[in-house]
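Retry 2 of 3 after timeout on previous attempt. Resubmitting structure tokens to design endpoint.
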């Protein structure tokens, strides 16, 4: 993550998207999964809460797409809650959670292509019907 000088303490969470201090909350706790006896002693599970309304660099339409992409991970207070406990180390789980957030934001920034209705031309309809008549004769 890089810092933006115009935002006090702003961290870049995705290309062109910044989170000011307090927009990201990271918490570690004990997790299951691989790790043997250390599972019972070390806080390796990483949980990240991101306040959507405090992110800068996203258009309103992209914020709507981000909310839709978050799905069940979106809390009632408009925060995205991401969890990782698949790795054995705290740093690896933290990196995985940040990577997931980055992927969500990058995916939300891409505007979907607008589908325009199209119709077959009169000549195309005639060719299709001719082909059907020809196949029927065979």
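Retry 2 succeeded. Sequence:
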């Amino acid at each position: 993550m890089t810092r933006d000088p115009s935002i006090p303490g702003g961290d870049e969470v995705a290309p062109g998207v910044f989170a000011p201090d307090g927009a990201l909350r990271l918490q570690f706790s004990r997790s299951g999964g691989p790790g043997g006896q250390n599972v019972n002693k070390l806080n390796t599970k990483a949980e990240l809460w991101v306040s959507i309304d405090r992110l800068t660099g996203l258009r309103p339409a992209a914020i709507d797409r981000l909310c839709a992409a978050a799905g069940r991970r979106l809390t009632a207070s408009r925060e995205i809650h991401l969890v990782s406990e698949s790795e054995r180390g705290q740093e690896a789980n933290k990196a995985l959670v940040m990577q997931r957030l980055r992927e969500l934001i990058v995916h939300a920034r891409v505007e979907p292509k607008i589908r325009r209705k199209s119709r077959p031309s009169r000549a195309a309809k005639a060719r299709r019907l001719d082909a059907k008549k020809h196949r029927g004769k065979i």
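Attempt log closed. The beta strands are 3-4, 10-14, 17-19, 24-29, 45-51, 79-84.
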